[in-house]
Structure formats: C-alpha cells, structure tokens
Design a protein that fits this description.
By secondary structure, this protein is an alpha/beta fold. Helix content is about 35%, strand content about 15%.
Length: about 220
C-alpha cells in the first residue's frame, strides 16, 4: 500500500529489524551528488519509484529499499515522501530479498550506443559512468598510419623512440646464415611483414659480445 509519510518517521536500515542486516549500499561522493541532482531535476520520479518501508511497533518505518534516496531527500529539505508500506507479516527472508533485488541491475548498458547516439554530458549528469579515456599514443598513431607503400623500412612495432634501430639487409639465405653464425643470433626475434619475409631483431649487447668473442678467438 502506498502512503505519503513524514520523513521524521522514516529511519535508515541500521539492522534494527531482526533477520535483516543493515543496508550495505553506499555511493561515492560524485555519484551521490549526481543522484541528488537527479531528484532535484525530476522530483516526480519519487512517486514513480517509491521508497519501500517496513512498519515498526513504535509508529516509525524502516527503509528497506531506498536508504540513499531517503538521505538525499532529507538533505534537499523534503518533509514527506511517497512510500510503499510492507505488510508487518513480511518475513525477514523476503525483506532481505527485496533489499538485495532493489539494488541489482540485471541488464547492461550499451556504452557504444550511449556514446554515439545519446548526449554523453547529459547521461553523466544523470549518474551514468563512462570509462576514462586512454591517453593518446602519438607513436602508435603514426606507426598505424604507415602502409606497405609508404614504409621506408620494415618497422618493428614493439619499439618506440627510446630505441635506436640499425638495419642490415640480406637478399639471400647464404648471407643471412653467415650473419646469424657470426653474431650468435640464437636470441633473435623474427617479425614478418607484407613485403619482407622475415625481419630479425637482435639486441646490440648480443652483437657486442659476439664481436668481442670473435676477436679473442685464435
């Protein structure tokens, strides 16, 4: 049954009903403030989704569903609120069920549709949260813009401006095998591109060791 009840008679769920633990729900400050703005902008929503309360013997009511809305409405100066009053015979199990299901969201938002078809600023003001935008990777953008036609050399995407790249070209297997043998390129990494069958990468430290070892051999 729906009644309009004075906020002075409404209590937060602090575990005072036997079998119903205290309300575990909380919002971060930003989301709580967004909810308050939502109530200010659309107060009619309070009648469309009333608080669900349980009657106590002392004439007061405990908010089973809507504790945060109750808190926000008090801060906004509301003196009375529409409430759905539960039957006193409602079991603790049912109260726990109502409290839990009231806070469960079974569906998921299509964030891609929201970002491209809805007003994102408007949605954010109504409490919808979006993932933080990742900082731009200028090197990756430049690398991704290179095509087989515009590339000067077969680049290796693992590396960026912090590295210096030396390129030795080989057009036949004999020269390639000679280089691998003399540089001890067992640790090399290979990358293939559309134009190059294999790009072999070796760290300069390994080249240095290979050259130093060759000078010490008799």
């Amino acid at each position: 049954m729906t009644q309009t009840i004075a906020t002075s008679l409404l209590e937060y769920n602090k575990g005072q009903i036997e079998g119903l633990p205290k309300n575990p729900r909380f919002f971060r400050d930003s989301r709580y403030e967004a909810m308050k703005r939502s109530i200010e902008e659309s107060p009619e929503m309070l009648s469309l989704r009333e608080l669900i309360v349980y009657p106590m013997e002392d004439g007061k009511y405990v908010a089973v569903c809507g504790n945060l809305r109750l808190r926000a409405c008090r801060e906004l100066g509301y003196k009375e609120l529409p409430c759905k009053v539960l039957d006193p015979s409602t079991s603790p199990k049912k109260l726990r069920e109502y409290a839990t299901k009231d806070n469960v969201s079974f569906g998921e938002n299509d964030l891609d549709a929201m970002e491209h078809e809805w007003d994102k600023t408007e949605l954010a003001s109504w409490g919808i949260e979006f993932a933080e935008e990742k900082p731009k990777d200028e090197f990756k953008e430049r690398f991704d813009s290179i095509t087989d036609e515009t590339a000067v050399y077969p680049l290796v995407p693992k590396y960026d401006e912090r590295h210096e790249l030396f390129i030795i070209q080989s057009s036949n297997e004999v020269d390639s095998n000679w280089l691998r043998e003399h540089l001890g390129m067992q640790r090399m990494k290979s990358y293939k591109t559309g134009k190059v069958g294999k790009s072999n990468v070796i760290d300069v430290k390994d080249v240095r060791h290979a050259l130093e070892d060759s000078h010490t051999k008799p």
